[in-house]
Specification:
This protein is α/β, with parallel strands linked by helices and about 400 residues long. The strands form three sheets. The chain has a ten-stranded mixed sheet with strand order 5-4-6-7-1-8-14-13-9-10, sandwiched between helices. The longest helix has 16 residues. The radius of gyration is 20 Å and the shape is globular. The model has no long low-confidence stretch (mean pLDDT about 95).
């Protein structure tokens, strides 16, 4: 079977509006965590988030959208990032090859429908947003904006969603069903998710501190990121630049609890094990682990134990969520971009805010930017419902 090449990337997050801006922030330890500006919420001064400091109106102008459109913020972010990825890959004819879009989201369009919930019965002024509430709407709008005629589908498996989008895209190419796939995810901040995670009591009132003994919880974030995956046949035919390869992937479910991972990280362990098998790699060949690292008590303990079970000798690892916050369905795509940037620049990005090791094991994340030769990066993403996914990115 041929390789799965990554030929383009696009991203917008709280630390930058492009791949270059995100890389600059990562290299200079510039976090995007702040107080909330764009949402009216009672929790404005109680929590911190990874918020993109641009209004929907600014995005409308940037994309040339007409007044009265029903683009949600989730769709706006998704279009911007997907458009960047297509341009980065040098694609001028979207339908030259059998091309698909697999887009992930968990918030969907609720960032807009929740604003007018009490108005819908009284006036039809904003009822257009009801039609953009479902998860597939943002995918449809991205495809329409790009002029894509091929397969369009949506994945919503909580925080592993865009890892599963990458995995499905790679499998569709490997099985010969598509030649090129746009994969990734998009999620906007919304009151619904803020209130939901507040109810679970896992939001932090300070910047998040993954793998720290004194971690208090996560910071929600918003972002969109997409990769262009292309078949080896296209690369050989066109001689296109390749940014990296999707060499391995795995998905498993530890079936433990709706909103918690098992104590020994069974699902995470199985996902990493499967990804290594698909990549035909030994654990010792992984140079950097981009951890899920949400800074919640449950995740970091569960993921740490799973990592210990896989790796006899621990490579450098870090969570980049102190930069962006936890961007839910977009998280794995955001961290896929960061994993590829680590490969390209031969660096391990720091796990910001770490101070005190966890007493349960002897795992210390990389806390400062480190230069080293990196050939393989393993990226973890674990979602509610026990949906655990791992993707491995390689130089060759």
């Amino acid at each position: 079977m041929g390789k799965i090449a990554v030929t383009g990337m696009g991203i917008i997050s709280s630390i930058g509006n492009s791949v270059g801006e995100n890389l600059h922030a990562l290299l200079n330890s510039q976090t995007g965590i702040s107080r909330i500006d764009n949402i009216e919420t009672n929790h404005r001064n109680e929590i911190m988030v990874g918020e993109i400091k641009k209004s929907n109106a600014e995005f409308h102008s940037l994309l040339g959208l007409p007044p009265g459109n029903n683009y949600t913020r989730t769709a706006l972010l998704g279009v911007i990032a997907a458009r960047q990825a297509v341009a980065d890959a040098g694609i001028t004819d979207m339908n030259e090859y059998r091309t698909g879009l697999i887009s992930a989201t968990s918030v969907g369009g609720m960032d807009m429908t929740e604003r007018f919930f009490y108005d819908y019965l009284a006036t039809d002024e904003n009822r257009r947003y009801i039609h953009s509430n479902d998860a597939a709407d943002s995918s449809k709008k991205i495809a329409e904006h790009l002029g894509l005629d091929g397969l369009v589908t949506t994945i919503s498996t909580a925080c592993s969603s865009s890892a599963n989008a990458i995995m499905l895209g790679a499998r569709l190419i490997k099985s010969g069903q598509l030649d090129r796939v746009i994969v990734g995810g998009t999620d906007a901040l919304s009151k619904f998710t803020i209130n939901g995670f507040k109810t679970l009591m896992i939001l932090s009132d300070t910047e998040n501190t993954p793998f720290d003994a004194n971690r208090k919880g996560l910071n929600l974030g918003e972002a969109a990121a997409y990769l262009i995956l292309e078949s080896d046949e296209i690369i050989q035919k066109t001689g296109k630049r390749v940014l990296a390869y999707v060499s391995g992937y795995g998905n498993a479910n530890d079936a433990f609890h709706q909103t918690a991972s098992s104590d020994n990280g069974e699902g995470a362990f199985l996902a990493m094990q499967k990804a290594l098998k698909v990549a035909n790699l030994n654990a010792s060949e992984i140079d950097y682990i981009n951890a899920h690292g949400t800074a919640t008590p449950n995740n970091d303990l569960s993921e740490g134990r799973a990592i210990e079970r896989i790796f006899e000798t621990m490579p450098e690892f870090s969570s980049t969520k102190p930069f962006t916050g936890h961007t839910l369905a977009a998280a794995a795509a955001v961290e896929a971009v960061y994993s590829i940037l680590a490969l390209q620049n031969n660096v391990v990005f720091p796990n910001l805010n770490f101070g005190t090791p966890m007493p349960e094991f002897n795992l210390i994340p990389q806390t400062v930017l480190k230069e080293k030769t990196i050939n393989h990066v393993l990226s973890n993403s674990f979602g509610f419902g026990g949906n655990c996914s791992t993707v491995i990115f390689s130089k060759n």
